[in-house]
Amino acid sequence: MTNEELWRAALGEIELSISKANFITWFKNTSILSSENGRVVIGVPNGFAKEWLENKYNLYILKALRNTQNNIREVVCSIKTSDDTSFSENRVDAIQPPKKIILNKPLIKKTLTISQENNLNPKYTFENFIVGSSNELAKAACYAVSQNLGRIYNPLFIYGGVGLGKTHLLQSIGNEILQKNPSRKVKYITSERFTSELIDSIRTQKVNDFKEHYQKIDLLIIDDVQFLSGKEKTQEEFFHIFNYLYQLNKQIVLSSDRAPKAIPTLEERLRSRFEGGMIADVSKADFETRMAILSKKSRDENFNIPSETLSFIAENITNNIRELEGAFNRVMVSSQLSGKEPSLEYVSTLLSELITSGKKKGINHKHIINIVSSFYDINPNDLIIKNRKKEVVKPRQIAMYLMRSELEYSFPGIGEKLGGRDHTTTIHACNKITRELKNNDKLIEEITLIKERLYKIT
Amino acid sequence: MKLTCTQEKFKKAILNSERVVSKQNTLPILNNILFETENGVLKISATNLEIGISKQIGAKIEKEGKITIPAKLISNFINNLPSGENINIEVDNQNLKIKSGTSKAIIKGLMADDFPLLPRKNSDYILTLSSIKLKNIINKVISCVAFNETRQELTGINLIFKENELYFASTDSFRLVENKFLLEEGNIKDGYLDFISKKDSIIIPANTLSEIARIINSEIDEEINIAIEDGQIFFEINGVNIVSRLINGKYPEYKHIMPKEFQTRVVGEKSTIQGAIKMSSVFSKTKNSEIVFKIDSEAEKFFIEARSVECGENSTELMVDIVGPSQEVVFNSKYLLDGINIIGTGKVAILLNNESSPVAIKEINEKTGEVLDEYIYIVMPIKG
């Protein structure tokens, strides 16, 4: 039996006869140093334990040890002073120089930092905005505003679908102004941020500070004002700030994804004010513009790509510029990672998912019929049966239009789905809706809402 | 147990003991102070099993006995007693009845038999030092002790024994302080030379020394006796006996780090240099709170500077004597300040070699202008 086993056995027994606190206090870090001729030397960590074990627990220890080895006659304690010299000596020097901490440099390049004060991102400028027929009016209006702040086109209202460059144009105005005169006060804010700042100021009872802050601004840019819809208190505060700035001839620029008229629950007085200045729309970029954007991007990124590949991307990604850029980035990164040439074949397989998935996935004519009928609050069967009531005719035409535009069904196919109607009826319906969409904002709004509901299903 | 003693002595003994008592312990009795009568005196002891302290005070003893009493309770009671009146103590059935003037208390105690025995000294004292000198040294070297317990040996103060002098040293691995204690006749007892031939270096826990520094009265110079045994050290000062464990392990070698010679020497007023460093450290916002010493020996100019991206910059020109070549060195202001704060003289010497080797801070004899060698504080510059 080794000393270690002997001591473990003895400790097990001692533990039972004294309290736990005592056991831990006095027997922690103890061991048998030697055991010769019935004399056991116990190593203890300090003088207190030595005194205590020798004077108070001597009998316990002796008894416990004798239970295992009955030739033990004497127990003495010794303070352990084991300096493990070998272990200490190869340690490091007594003192070491502290390491220099590099002064905290900004992690992002200066050119890309977004200013806290005006929220402008310096990467958006007029220089890198690509103009095409779809956005030249908006760009011209924005440029004009940036040259004559507050004197023409106040307020300027830009609207258009997602990813078509509204934010780019808006921020370009701000950056242009600041470049010419950095002391001008410019504020770019989304309507959602505006709302939450207002709510904060109400909660902390600093509405006046909030108002004062906005009333000092030379150029106020509010992005995505459609989100103000339904927020009455925000609209009211915004109205006051708007009026104040407007009267001082401070420039206001707004953007939205639809025309002021089409924003639901926007207060009349705000709507009329939005319409009082200049309204410009940004529509979907045409093929040439998309090509221009792609070739500029490939130049900027220094990425060699055949023009036929570029035109393939431009032809297939038509919805918005952001998707176009995404597709381009995808092509660029994967071709750089795999080391393959961005040939037409490679790109078409790479983007096949993106192109086909488009937005038609998982939707069929039944969805359209259901959504349209529930939107107009009619029975889905009314769309199919022969019935020329006015309240049914229009929804039916819209359903036909949507089947054509969203699902690309054939005209006879559409007629068949809707109660075996003739294909000429379908053609007439689609043409009628398409024509009306050009000058009927209410219809645009309805179609937008129906589409929104439609794509929520998938 | 029944006795009477003076309040003043009793109070002092309680207050000295009470600090040792640990706050949290597995053993409840360690929160208590032991009172026992022994050969016509009252002995008051306390311990946390790292350090034990006991003090004998003269008393008129009517009946022998012993008891332990919660330290917090008795010290709070004593602290609030109106001074002057003598103290009567009587133990009755595990209760301590204590009476002084018009105040009295009955305090519930614990069996004295369970109280740990303080280790007894089995050897003779080998050193007798001046208490005030020792207190000064402790206060200087304790500033560098590491609090981090990963390196046990750095939580203590290294005491190195030489034939004619003692060295007290401490380091937290960023800076180091060493103070020499010249041994004179009367300091050394018979066993000293014999002892140092076997062991020339020990590590004393920083807590023990700070406790001793507190017990030492800074007005009256007394003798402090020291004995060292295996793993423990004994002190005796004016009737107070202190026993402490020693830290196991080997203190890191440090002598080779201290440069033998320095190229540049700057001597200036302690208070102005202190002020300039404090001011600069406000402007340095990094974790190391870096400040720069610019020593221009041609123009005889000395600048302390700091800058940070967030708050700007600061520069102070100081009137100092410069000997040696120009230097520009970066420091951690806190470490530097610690070294200068504890200097006992009105003037301070800063000794440098170059921007990457250790820098020393020493005291200056104000009458002769000489650099004193007793105290040396070493700090590493921050590498650029």
Give an overview in words.
The complex is a heterodimer of chains A (458) and B (384). Chain A contains 21 helices and 8 strands. With 458 residues, chain A is α/β, with parallel strands linked by helices. Chain A has helices at 3-17, 20-27, 47-55, 58-68, 85-89, 136-147, 166-180, 191-203, 207-215, 232-247, 268-276, 287-301, 307-316, 321-338, 344-357, 365-375, 380-384, 390-407, 411-417, 423-439, 441-457, and strands spanning 31-36, 39-44, 74-79, 156-160, 186-190, 219-223, 251-256, 278-282. Chain B contains 7 helices and 26 strands. Chain B has helices spanning 7-20, 71-79, 131-141, 192-198, 206-215, 270-283, 333-341, and strands at 2-5, 32-38, 41-47, 51-58, 60-63, 66-70, 87-92, 95-100, 103-108, 127-130, 156-161, 165-171, 175-182, 201-205, 223-229, 232-237, 240-245, 264-269, 290-296, 301-308, 312-318, 321-323, 327-332, 347-352, 359-364, 371-379. In chain B, a hairpin with a 2-residue loop joins strand 15 (223-229) and strand 16. The model of chain B has no long low-confidence stretch (mean pLDDT 89). Classes of the chains: A alpha/beta (458), B alpha+beta (384). Chains A and B meet through helix 2, helix 3 and helix 5 of A and loops of B.
Counting DSSP H or I runs of 4 or more residues, the number of helices of chain B is: 7
Secondary-structure-derived class of chain B: alpha+beta
Structural shape of chain A:
elongated
Strand content of chain A: 5-15%
CATH topology of the largest domain in chain A: Rossmann fold
Spans where pLDDT lies below 50 across 5 or more residues of chain A:
85-90, 100-112
Indicate the mean pLDDT of chain A. 81
* Biggest sheet descriptor of chain B: 9 strands, antiparallel
Compute the CA-based radius of gyration of chain A.
Answer: 40 Å
Distance between the termini of chain B: 69 Å
Instruction: Give the overall average pLDDT of chain B.
Output: 89
Counted beta strands of chain A: 8
Assigned CATH class of the largest domain in chain A:
Alpha Beta
